[in-house]
Amino acid sequence: MLWGLLEGLLGHACPGCGGRLDRPLLCASCRGELRPWAREGMVYLGPYARWGGLARALKYGRRFGLALLLARPLAEGVREAGWGLCGVTAVPTLLPRLLLRGYNPPELLAKEVARLLGLPYRRALRRVRYAPSQPTRGRARHKLPGDLFAPALRVEGPWLLVDDVLTSGATFLRAKEALLLAGASRVYGAFLAVKDPEALGPYR
C-alpha cells in the first residue's frame, strides 16, 4: 500500500487502466482481471486494446516489476495447456537496441515464466536484421526477410517462445521458423497482449 501511495505521489497512474494506483505496479481492479486466454498453440493475457498499456509500461516505462507480476498468469495458462515443454526463450532484439535500452522486455517475461514453470531459459535465437513494425492486419510474412532471426544454440523438443505483443504475427513466425531450425520439435507462443487473435491462424 505504501509503495502504491509513493507511486501515486510520483505521478504514476495504473498502466492497465490509467486510474489511481492503490497497489504497487498495478491497481487492484486490473489485477483482478488478469487471467490467461488460450487459443491453439498460444497463451496471452487479452486484447491489446485492454492491456496495451502494460506492454508499453514494460517496454518504454522501465517498470520492470511488471514482468514478475504478469508472468504469473501467463505461466498458469501455459501450465494448463499441458504442452510438455523442454525450455523457454524470447523473441530477441537487435544488439544496438538492447544496449540502448539495457534490457529486452520479452526476455524479462520469458525468464520469469521459465522460473515459475521450473524450466530452463535459454537465449536460443539471435536477431540479425532490422525490420519495421508490422501492421495489425498485414499478415505479410513474405515481406520480412527470411534471415531476420538465426539459431544461437541447439535445442530439442517443444519450446515456448515469448513476445510482449502479437501484432500481425509476422515477426513471431519468423522467430518460430528460426527456433524450429535450431531443433525444436514444436513452438508455442506466449504474449502479454494480442492485437489480432487470428493472426497466426493461416500459418499454424
Automatic annotation (TrEMBL):
Keyword Translocase recorded: no
Position of the signal peptide: none
Keywords for this protein: Glycosyltransferase, Transferase
Coiled-coil segments on the chain, per record: none
Matches recorded under InterPro entries: ComF/GntX_DNA_util-trans, PRTase-like, PRTase_dom
Keyword Glycosyltransferase: yes
An example molecular function term from Gene Ontology annotations: glycosyltransferase activity
Family (UniProt): Belongs to the ComF/GntX family.
Name of the protein in its database record: Predicted amidophosphoribosyltransferases
Native species: Thermus arciformis
Top-rank taxon: Bacteria
